Amino acid sequence: MQRKLIRPLFPWLILLPLLIFFLYSLTVSLHAPISPSPKIKKISASPTCNLFKGHWSRDPNRRPIYDETCPFHRNAWNCFRNQRENMGTINSWKWVPQTCDLPQIDPFRFLDLMRNRNIGFVGDSLNENFLTSFLCSLRVADLGAKKWKRKGAWKGAYFPTFNVTVAYHRAVLLAKYKWQPKYSASGDQSQSEGVYRVDVDIPADDWANITNFYDVLVFNTGHWWGYDKFPKEKPLVFYRAGQPIVPALEMMDGLKLVLKHMVSHIQKEIPGKTLKFWRLQSPRHFYGGEWNQNGSCLFNEPLEESQLDIWFDPSNNGVNREARTINRLIDEAIRDTDFEVLDLTHLSEFRADAHPAIWLGRQDAVAVWGQDCMHWCLPGVPDTWVDILSKLISHHLKME
Ligand SMILES: *[C@@H]1O[C@H](CO)[C@@H](O)[C@H](O)[C@H]1NC(C)=O
Ligand SMILES: *[C@@H]1O[C@H](CO)[C@@H](O)[C@H](O)[C@H]1NC(C)=O
Ligand SMILES: *[C@@H]1O[C@H](CO)[C@@H](O)[C@H](O)[C@H]1NC(C)=O
């Protein structure tokens, strides 16, 4: 009986929304500004505004939009829960671009715009830090958000109200790499001796099969390209087309080659309609020594603009010089591609005050790992990264 009633209604159930949508889109297109040809993908947020240049300004009324109860937190970065000092001050700074305003993300509007679309992050733990801020921000608009770990994702969430997935694929070098133990003359496998084989032309398994799933992708690599992760006695050895590259490459030359191959792989394999970002380096703020030499970041305020070169210009040979060096290689690799650059380095260089430092949530953590002057407290600086990324994505989607 009920079936019969529904059947004649059925065409109307479909047609009515379509009609409403049609009328609505007519009015929208009448009022919308004339947008440039959709083929032009490289457009900035607004032709006059560079979101990456500006200054931090104190705004005592500013509040983070999520707190320590967000289920997507990673313990070591959950600075409210770990009772980090200064969290109020850390979150009272607002990034002010030179020629425009950067509002905090409106998660309802953003998810509504993203409906039926997916965003993926690929790279190292600084992209996980970024993702965690994004998930906690978006969850404000959809408390039904569920953990999501498919297609090789390390961490992620599905937002059922909007049918949106946002996830992170861990691939610290982007290229595939694996530990290769050394075999002794007798054929025994040594436990501790060996090399890390990097196939410069093969993407890591973790993101090998995601090409069609995401509408927006944010790539990064950089923080693992150092001798603390891969010491000289356990070096990276680079392979291309399955053969070792001879003569062996230095680490930075290997990075250049990996970037070249990964960029061209992405250009070739990922559909042209996918919005592709490359995030530049997140700066570290170890003061007085490296992470394993009692390096510390107990600062109460952001750095001054005049201090930045002393800290970060590679010619000053400071502890944290690598960020700008690696950025140059990345800049070269993505020049003349349709990647959009997320240049979060400069704005983050100021924020020596905003790392977890000694408040890591575990008593022995500092003794074992040293202070964390690399990742960021959440809520904190990555929330500004989210404001910028969501503004850029929104801009592109509105242009479609
Ligand atoms: C959810 O989004 C996916 C695209 O990511 C789409 O294929 C699917 O049809 C959507 N589901 C619903 C119920 O709209
Ligand atoms: C990717 O997908 C292909 C085809 O479905 C499959 O053969 C391959 O094993 C997958 N690779 C990974 C790393 O999951
Ligand atoms: C770090 O500090 C501890 C305790 O003050 C000290 O014993 C140790 O020698 C220091 N390590 C370095 C590398 O300076």
3D architecture notes:
The chain is an alpha/beta fold and 400 residues long. The chain has a domain of 273 residues: Rossmann fold. The protein is 31% helix and 18% strand. It contains ten helices and 13 strands. The strands form three sheets. Strands 4-5-6-3-9-12-13 form a seven-stranded mixed sheet, covered by helices on one side. A four-stranded mixed sheet has the order 7-8-10-11. A hairpin with a 4-residue loop joins strand 5 and strand 6. Helix 5 packs parallel to helix 7. It is globular, with a radius of gyration of 23 Å. It binds 2-acetamido-2-deoxy-beta-D-glucopyranose (3 copies). One 2-acetamido-2-deoxy-beta-D-glucopyranose binds next to loops.
Structure at a glance:
The strands form 3 sheets. The chain has a 7-stranded mixed sheet with strand order 4-5-6-3-9-12-13, covered by helices on one side. Strands 7-8-10-11 form a 4-stranded mixed sheet.
Blueprint of the fold:
Blueprint: H1 2-31, E1 54-58, H2 87-90, E2 93-97, H3 107-114, E3 118-123, H4 125-139, E4 146-147, E5 155-159, E6 164-170, E7 175-183, E8 189-203, E9 216-219, E10 236-240, E11 243-244, H5 251-269, E12 275-279, H6 308-312, H7 322-334, E13 340-342, H8 345-349, H9 365-369, H10 381-399
Helix pairs in contact: 4-10, 5-7
The protein binds 2-acetamido-2-deoxy-beta-D-glucopyranose (NAG) (3 copies).
One 2-acetamido-2-deoxy-beta-D-glucopyranose binds at residues 116, 118, 163.
